[in-house]
């Protein structure tokens, strides 16, 4: 009569490791882009208080030009 082999030798547990290639880090880039957009928007909205605005420039309504023909 043949002997039965030990179960430890015939049945082994196998572990499969699946590497996903990183995949993370996209959230940091998105946060940086959103931060830049918010800063630019705030600079645009408060440019007058920060000194980047139009200032007190005066634009005349008419310009007189005299051309003398000789």
H-E string:
HHH
- Residue stretches low in confidence (pLDDT < 50, at least 5 long) are none
**First CA to last CA: what distance?**
134 Å
Please report which band the strand proportion falls in: under 5%, 5-15%, 15-25%, 25-35%, 35-45% or over 45%: under 5%
Structural class: mainly alpha
Give the tally of β-strands: 0
Number of helices: 3
Rg, rounded, reads 38 Å
In short:
By secondary structure, the protein is mainly alpha-helical.
If you had to describe this structure to a student in words, what would you say it looks like?
- This protein is mainly alpha-helical and 70 residues long.
- The chain has helices spanning 7-10, 26-45, 47-50.
- The radius of gyration is 38 Å and the shape is rod-shaped.
- It starts with 6 loop residues before the first helix and ends in a 20-residue tail after the last helix.
Provide keyphrases for this structure.
0% strand; mainly alpha; 70 residues
How are the SSEs ordered, and which strands pair?
Blueprint: H1 7-10, H2 26-45, H3 47-50
């Amino acid at each position: 009569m043949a002997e039965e082999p030990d179960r430890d030798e015939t049945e082994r547990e196998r572990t499969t490791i699946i590497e996903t290639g990183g995949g993370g880090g996209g959230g940091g880039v998105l946060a940086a882009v959103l931060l830049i957009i918010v800063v630019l928007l705030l600079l645009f909205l408060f440019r007058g208080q920060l000194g980047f605005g139009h200032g007190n420039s005066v634009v005349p309504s008419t310009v007189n030009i005299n051309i003398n023909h000789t």
